[in-house]
Design brief:
Layout: H1 12-31, E1 42-46, E2 52-56, E3 59-63, E4 68-74, E5 88-97, E6 104-108, H2 131-145, E7 155-163, H3 166-170, E8 196-197, E9 201-202
Parallel strand pairs: 6-7
Antiparallel strand pairs: 1-2, 3-4, 4-5, 5-7, 8-9
Helix pairs in contact: 1-2
């Protein structure tokens, strides 16, 4: 019997970057008072190795009362038995006065956990979004605002990442005993999902996105 090849997918971090780019695209045109375009159906984001991938945008829009753009991606983890497979990864974007040196502020919303113990690449108290996904999000936001008159000297873009029903998903993970708060299905990781066979374990030879990854190490 011919064995079926396992299908790779994308991590929460990649989905978050795609959702953030779509939300930022809507925010850019809304902020500059241009007519809102048709909500983006697909967006392209870059990966640390220079490759790119397209993501389907599940939902998006702009809330005028609180001047917030939002977009969502449904995570497809491929054949990896990931508890967040099929989860809705949401990004909300607003423009605010710059109060930090950076022109981009990344926050964790409902369903994204908080680092509670030292020893991770992220400081205690920060949302559990790893350094590489943060850079992927930053690159996606930069692409979204490219060519617009956005003034990063005195304004900032604030991105909030959320996972719909993340608290329920967290109960199926080990995060209650880890360095993450329980309201987190998983820390937001970069790139492609590592394929893991339920009986035979990880398939280490499938692609270069599996740990240990040199770009995962803090500088």
């Amino acid at each position: 019997m011919k064995k079926r090849e396992l299908r790779s997918g994308y991590t929460t971090g990649a989905c978050a970057a795609a959702a953030a780019k779509a939300a930022a695209q809507l925010l850019a045109v809304a902020y500059h008072a241009t007519p809102l375009p048709t909500p983006p159906g697909r967006v392209s984001i870059s990966f640390p190795d220079g490759s790119r991938a397209d993501f389907t945008i599940h939902a998006s829009g702009y809330r005028r009362p609180d001047k917030t753009a939002f977009a969502a991606v449904i995570k497809d983890a491929g054949d990896d038995p990931d508890v967040t497979n099929g989860a809705e990864i949401v990004a909300e974007a607003i423009i605010t006065r710059k109060y930090l040196p950076s022109a981009l502020v990344i926050k964790g919303g409902k369903g994204v956990g908080t680092v509670t113990k030292p020893g991770l690449a992220i400081a205690v108290g920060e949302p559990a979004i790893n350094p590489v996904p943060r850079k992927m999000i930053a690159d996606a936001i930069s692409e979204a605002f490219s060519g617009t008159p956005f003034r990063s000297s005195d304004l900032a873009v604030e991105i909030t990442i959320l996972v719909t029903n993340g608290e329920l998903l967290a109960k199926k993970t080990l995060n209650e005993d880890s360095a993450l708060s329980a309201a987190c299905p998983s820390s937001v990781q970069p790139g492609l999902c590592a394929l893991f066979h339920p009986r035979h374990g990880p398939r280490l030879s499938l692609h270069p996105w599996m740990s240990p990854r040199p770009w995962d190490k803090p500088k």
